[in-house]
Design brief:
The chain is an alpha/beta fold. It is about 35% helix and about 25% strand. The model is unreliable at about 210-213 (pLDDT under 50).
């Protein structure tokens, strides 16, 4: 679970960028809008989102929602973030959509199987000192909340531009962590190569039939 010190580290990294007139990708710590949206594109290419219920964990300013909406995708969106400042900004821009400020890992708002798809991009990037443990705890929660797909992006350990502020995973590490959930999963897809410093993991739970187009 995330304790308050970890939450404050995350807030202090992101929140000072708000209100400075920066583009969204800089507020959120991404290298470019193109790179940020390429991560979203990988989700859209490999997971059927149309008419699904999607939970965006660490939703930030709601860029995933805006990207998919601009692509003409129809879906039921919920965004959650631990930063109230982020969710306030997201609500102002997308007043018709649901954004909640809460710590999903210590909250019981949503019952088991509330969503078809759980997606998160970036919440595992900061080096918090216990990233593997955090990821394993997060996955347990995600698999509880999802009835179909859990998808997430991670920084790649072979990134040519490593920074001590961030944590880099290897695909092999992820396979090992997911081994603890193998009884829940029917398939796992690891996608590399779309960015030099990033990879995506898509987990399909048992008893589902429409993970990919």
């Amino acid at each position: 679970m995330m304790n308050m010190s970890k939450i404050e580290i995350i807030k202090q990294y992101y929140e000072p960028n708000l209100g400075k007139g920066l583009p969204d990708y800089e507020v959120l710590g991404w290298e470019s809008k193109e790179a940020q949206y390429l991560r979203f594109e990988m989700l859209g290419k490999n997971v059927i989102i149309e008419n699904k219920k999607l939970l965006d964990v660490g939703c930030g300013l709601g860029n995933l929602l805006e990207y998919l909406r601009d692509k003409g995708v129809h879906f039921d969106y919920t965004g959650v973030d631990i930063s109230s400042k982020m969710t306030e900004h997201a609500k102002k821009r997308n007043p018709e959509s649901k954004f909640l400020c809460l710590d999903i890992f210590n909250d019981s708002t949503f019952p088991s199987g509330s969503f078809d798809i759980i997606y998160t991009s970036g919440i595992f990037n900061l080096n918090l000192g216990n990233n593997n443990e955090f990821l394993a705890t997060a996955l347990k929660k995600f698999f509880h909340l999802s009835n179909s797909i859990v998808a997430f992006n991670l920084l790649h350990h072979k990134s040519p531009d490593r920074d001590d502020r961030y944590y880099y995973f290897s695909p092999e590490e992820i396979v090992g962590i997911l081994g603890d959930f193998k009884h829940e999963l029917s398939d796992t897809q690891i996608i590399e190569g779309y960015l030099k410093n990033d990879f995506m993991v898509i987990c399909k739970k048992n008893h589902t039939t429409d993970a990919t187009p």
